[in-house]
Design a protein that fits this description.
Elements (H helix, E strand, L loop, with lengths): L5 H5 L8 E4 L5 H8 L4 H12 L4 E7 L7 H13 L3 E8 L5 H6 L12 H13 L11
Parallel strand pairs: 1-2, 2-3
């Protein structure tokens, strides 16, 4: 997901065709609260992979009322437009498949609503309007 120390990724670059990096939250406080870790290592990994010439796709989980906002969408767009080796973004709309597992483990997990297709399309269009590039599913 990009949060491990970069030294672990560096050794993989010659053997890896494509890195899929989760870009979950732009807001640092929200990232820490909802993932338990800082988002800084993810951003640093993206930067260093790009500088090393590694191909990257940003996988962007979007959760209604958490990160479905223009600040986050602008950041996704800026990352994809500002790094030559980021091939684009891939939206991953929220789903509630993990809720049953969380209940079996007696773990509290916030419940969010699953977005409609039209909503996901509007998110995609906003990121594209901010200058982002969507991953086509192909790479060189």
């Amino acid at each position: 997901n990009g949060s491990a120390p970069f030294s672990g990724y560096f050794g993989l670059i010659p053997y890896t065709d494509l890195f899929l990096v989760d870009y979950k939250l732009t807001d640092e406080a929200l990232h820490l609260r909802h993932t338990g870790v800082s988002g800084r290592p993810v951003r640093e990994t993206i930067q260093k992979l790009d500088e090393a010439g590694a191909k990257i796709v940003l996988r962007c989980p979007i959760i209604p009322q958490l990160n479905d906002n223009d600040t986050h969408f602008r950041a996704i767009a800026a990352l994809t437009a500002g790094h030559k080796n980021i091939l684009g973004f891939e939206l991953m709309p929220y789903h509630n498949m993990g809720l049953s597992k969380a209940r079996r483990l007696n773990t509290v997990m916030p419940e969010f609503s699953t977005p409609k297709r039209e909503t996901v399309d509007s998110w995609r269009n906003r990121i594209l309007a901010f200058g982002g590039k969507e991953w086509s599913g192909a790479y060189e």
